[in-house]
Amino acid sequence: MKKYLLLLAFVLLVMPGQLLAQAGGQNQSAASVLTNIQQKITWRTPADSLRQVAAALDELRAKSPNAYLSYWGAFAQYHLYFRATQDKKTAEKALQIGIALLEEVSTKTAEHYALLSLLQGLNLEFASFLTIPFKANAVKENTEKALALAPNNLRAHYARGINDFYTPSQYGGGKVAADHFKKAIALPEKTDPNPYAPDWGKADAYSYLAQTYKKAGQTELAKQYATEGLAKYPNHGQLKSLVAKL
Amino acid sequence: MVLALALLCAFSSPAAAQNRLVLRGTVTDRNTGEKLLGATVRLSSLPTTATATDLDGRFELPTVLAQGDTLIVTYIGYAPYRQFLGAGGQNQAEILVRLRPQANQQLGQVEVTAKRPIAEEFIVRELDYLKIVTNPAAAADPLLAVRTLPAASNTDESASISLRGSDPAQTGIYLNNVPIYDAVKFAQLSGIGTFSIFNVDLVKSVLVFPSNPPLEYGNAGAGLISLTTDDKPRPRFLQGSLGLANSGVMAGAPVGEKGMLKVYGNYQTGEFIKAVNPESFRKLSKFGNRDFGGHFSTSLGQYGTLKLFAYGISEQYAYQFQSPSLNDTYRYRKNRGFGIASYEKAWAGADLSLSLGAGRSRATDGVGNYRAARRNADYYGSLNYRRYWSDALSTRVGLSYDERTIRVGGQFPALPYAMSETAPAYAATIRQQRTLWEAYQYTKWKHQRWVVGVGLRTTVPPRQQSAYLSGQLNLRYDLSPRQFLNLSGGQYTSFSSPDAAYYPFLRYCTRQVALDYAYTSDELNLSAAVYAKNESSLLDSRVYGVEVYAQRTFFKKLSADISLASIRSRLQTTNPEVAALALNQRQYNLPFIVKNNLKFGFKGGEIGSFTQYRSGAPYTPVLGAQLDPESGFFAPQYTIEAGTGRLPNYFRTDLTASKFIRSRQNQNTLVLYAVLSNVLNTRNVSSYSYSADYTQANPEYFQRRFLYFGAVVTLQ
Prior knowledge:
The structure holds two protein chains of two kinds.
Chain A: H1 2-14, H2 16-26, H3 37-40, H4 47-63, H5 67-83, H6 88-103, H7 110-123, H8 132-149, H9 154-166, H10 177-186, H11 202-215, H12 219-232, H13 237-245
Helix pairs in contact in A: 4-5, 5-6, 5-7, 6-7, 7-8, 7-9, 8-9, 9-10, 9-11, 10-11, 11-12, 12-13
Chain B: H1 2-17, E1 21-29, E2 40-43, E3 50-52, E4 58-63, E5 70-74, E6 81-84, E7 95-99, H2 107-114, E8 125-128, H3 129-133, H4 142-147, E9 171-175, E10 178-179, E11 203-209, E12 223-229, E13 237-243, E14 246-255, E15 259-269, H5 271-276, E16 284-299, E17 304-323, E18 326-347, E19 350-367, E20 370-388, E21 393-413, E22 425-447, E23 450-459, E24 469-480, E25 483-495, E26 507-520, E27 524-536, E28 540-554, E29 558-572, H6 576-582, E30 590-602, E31 605-614, E32 618-619, E33 622-627, E34 634-638, E35 645-646, E36 650-662, E37 669-677, E38 685-690, E39 697-701, E40 706-715
Parallel strand pairs in B: 1-7, 9-12
Antiparallel strand pairs in B: 1-4, 2-3, 2-5, 5-6, 8-11, 9-10, 11-12, 13-14, 13-40, 14-15, 15-16, 16-17, 17-18, 18-19, 19-20, 20-21, 21-22, 22-23, 23-24, 24-25, 25-26, 26-27, 27-28, 28-29, 29-30, 30-31, 31-36, 32-35, 33-34, 36-37, 37-40, 38-39
InterPro entries (chain B): CarboxyPept-like_regulatory, Plug_dom, Plug_dom_sf
Domain TonB-dependent receptor plug (chain B): 146-223
Protein name (chain B): TonB-dependent receptor plug
């Protein structure tokens, strides 16, 4: 009996932090939302959890506006867009909220510009025909700003690659996407040691690099990069699907 | 065994931690004391390991100090903080880090802000390409788009913009920071709406300051419109346009990796449009123009931009001139050209700009006993430097040179009411010139929700010019991220554009105060303003006004806006000799102005309408006439006080429709458009003409119902 009591005492001593963390996961505490924020917003995060994270970030930002809170709020909206692709209204709203969050940041970093360009690029789907050329120009400008500010930022290259990937060739697209995706996969995931700084994007860069080669008819290269990416990121859904198809 | 393992686990961590150090502290803004969330805190010996401050600006950094280690705290928008921790450092107490805000080091943003005026927080309205081309009443003309704003108080249908009850001549118009003194085509033409000389395909933005124009620009007294050309490269294109009165071509191509060249030319003739709209052109027997322009922009080095623009126009027209003493054809011909060069360079914390402009024109006009030939020459240069002392505080200083010369030679009526060819006239050659050397400073300070701007502009010795000082104060308070109040006031010195035959360059002193409110969201925009001003020159004018505006978007496809404005204006003078001038002076005493825009967008097209209903403009009635025995012509007798009569109220509705077609194969586009102006064919009175003895007054009308259509094709 004593043995079990001691074990219980050990558990109480060592595990309270973990227990609290789990409880927080159930009901996202605003104050702790920035802790390991990157792990809370991934392709596997359910929409409900994303909304909880977004709400917690909103709550914090209402008290104290901050560039990191805006960034992660926008990133949550970026993911919410992909969870709502069948519901166009919700998807568009997510993009608009994300864009507004980033645009109001007065001291934008390369990370802000890169994410902003991704959101704005997706938002072109909802733009009227008259506005598309101009909005598309703004998307490209933001990717260029991101690269100008941080030439060795993975997500800046990823955003520029995405911009080129989705730009029709008549408008000068499809020329530099592969270069930027290759640069992205060669760069470190994170250069800023700040724990609130993002580190996402490399798996996606692999996926789009493979798709770029596939689009160009270079199936072998597409397969090579998809396989390499999947080896590094075995849970990435898009890479799995690509490898299966190639 | 289990017991031993449990004890080992339970106590091993604290035991290990005894050799480690935990640095604790708080990071705040040195100026405001605000606790900073997300600051990066690390040691110099461990560049890849860091912690971040929490919501309370607090941090804890568990570490083992290396010899000579330094604590480094960084946060964007602040100068990095370094604190030497010494050997060991075990005795570090709570560390308080107070970060110093510094000029924004984001070069990408610096480049953007360098192209904006320092007083950008006090802009009341900004129009871009889209807002211009989708404005039903703008006819894709940047200045006509401004005319639809609530602050525009035009009592005519021209592109010369009156802002908040001031004469259009007092509205400063700048293109890439260079003043454009004559910005409309057919400047003296009445009878049809005139257009500005600006090509919408070159325009990036139009900033409108309807009151208290920032003193970083030149002599703008009443209000200011600043146009900026687009400098972004785009793929090669060729555009052709064909309309009832106009045909044109524009071509653009990238130059190198960072440059863009656009050239265009237009030819306008009145034959077809007169055939379709005979009633609107009853008095206009002939009109046409040819214009051409070229714009080149390129990036120079890092964050430097060069823009070159050249423009030339040749225009002519003839219309039936009717006055009590003459019924004859007035003829006008003008050739004009100007060039503008601007260079902007940005660094972290500073930017520099140089703007140069030169223009020349020759015009001849005449009717009856009046004949004149005019030659104008304008030269302008300005050098501006802005320094960001911190994110919150910045100053812009500059020096400008502005020279205008007007030469007029010809024959002029000796009596203003006698214009027949046989009436007395005199010959004269007149030269008017003014040269202004001015310096200015504008300092802006931002603190939390407040923005404060103070500007001073003055003459620079030792030039031969009488000294003056203009000053302004701008206060902006952000009620929320979406709404603000803007209080501005000041005293401004400007000069009239003279009618060189009669008056020299006249100095205007304008004192004004305005309070503007704006609310902006995706679906709803509101604004309101109250203002008062006093303009002193030969005549004094007092103006009070109020305006409100609301714009709402419904279902993303329908946009509706309405604006209401009221202006009370009065001309005053104590000099009886000058009082005669007031008789024909345009006045803006308009108890009500209502404007409404409706736009409905659908897939591949748009339809829209613009309606304006306002009080008729004041005019000075003729009471009768006396025969002048010397000349044999009747001299009109006016009421003692100017502007006591009022023209009938003005009402006009325009409809527009456009259809956009894009080729799926090659992205080429075709835009078809049609405009029906004054749909109800309202007879809006612009003035009265009189019989020879002034016993009969006949109304002259603004544009009657008018149809225009055309197409624009763009090949990529």
